[in-house]
Amino acid sequence: MTNEPQVTKHGGGIWSIPVPIPDNPLGHTLVHVIETDAGPVLIDTGWDDPASWQALRDGLAACGTSVNALHGVLVTHHHPDHHGLSARVREESGAWIALHEADAAVVRRTRDVDPSRWLGYLVEKLAAAGAPDTHTAPLRAALAEGRGGRPPGRRAALPDRGIEPNALVALPGRRLRAVWTPGHTPGHVCLHLEERHPGRAGPGGRLFSGDHLLPTISPHIGLYEEPDDDGSSDPLGDYLDSLERIADLRPAEVLPAHQYAFSDARARVDALTAHHAERLSDLRALLTQRDLTPWQLAESMRWNRPWEQIPFGSRTIAVAEAEAHLRRLVKLGHAEAVSGSHPVAYRATG
Ligand SMILES: [Zn+2]
Ligand SMILES: [Zn+2]
C-alpha cells in the first residue's frame, strides 16, 4: 500500500510534511520545511522507522527538494516523534542539528544510561509514588531476568548546536526567533517566524509550536526526568508561564507539530489555562477528603476513560501527570506532604 504524501504548502517558503508515527493514535508528526538562502531547514524530523523515513523523503520531493539538500534541523524537543530521524537526516545530508541545552542534557543522559539502571530507576520512582506491587511486578521480573528493556531515545542524535532562548536563529534570509517554552519537556522551544504572514494582514507572524500548543490536545505534563530531582522543578508551573509567553506574541497563525494549523492562539491558551486550573482545584478538593499518594490521586482523577480501562503503560504516564499537578499545588501552598508517610502522601492545606 502506498500513500501519496499530503504535503501542505503554507506560503512564504513554508511547507509541512505529515510523517507517520507507527501504532500511535496521534497519527503523524507535522515536519515543517523552511526555505532559506543556504538551503531548506527542517523543524523536527519524525519517528525513526523505515515507513516514516520514506514519508519524509517523499514529502521533501513533493516540496521540490531532497534530504541531501537540507542545510539544518531545528528540533522543538527531544521526544522520539520529533527528534527520531535527526541522526539519519544528518548522516545523509551533513545538516547540523540544533536543540535547546536542557533537552540535549536529557538526550545525553538517555544515551549513557545502562538499560537495567533505567528500569530500576523507573521501578523506584513508581514505588515512591505509591504504585501497587501488581503494577511494578512485570518491571521487577524483567529486571531480575536481566531483560533490561530499552529506554526510548537511546539512539537519539547528539545536537551540533544549541537553541538560545530569545535569540534569532542563524538562518540566512529568514527571521526566526527561538522562544523557550519549558513544561512538556525542560528544553521545549517554539520558533517564531517574525515575518509578515503571506495570507493575512497585520503583524504577528507565524509560530511553530511543537507540542506546546496543539489545536485540541492538551500535551502531557509530567515531572522532568531528572536523576537528582530535589523537588525544586515545577513543570506545570513552567508550562503555564510558557503558554502566556506564547499568547503575548499574538501570532497570526500557529503551525503545530500534530493535528493542523490554527489561528486563535489566545483562545487556545485560555482554554488550556482554564483546563489546568480546573484540574488543580479538583485535585485539591480530593486532598481535603483524605491523604493520597500520587498513585491514589491518579486513580481518583478524571481521565478520558475509567481507571480500570487505562492500560499499564498509560497508568505510568497518568501518575506522572498527577505528580506534576501535586508539585504545582505544593508550590502554590495548597497542598503538603504528610510527614512520616511512606510512600509519601499529600493533604490539602489552607
Ligand atoms: Zn512531545
Ligand atoms: Zn509530539
Automatic annotation (TrEMBL):
Under the heading InterPro entries, the entry gives:
Metallo-B-lactamas, RibonucZ/Hydroxyglut_hydro, Sec-metab_biosynth-thioest
UniProt protein name: Glyoxylase, beta-lactamase superfamily II
Annotated ranges, domain Metallo-beta-lactamase: 28-258
Pfam families under this entry? Lactamase_B
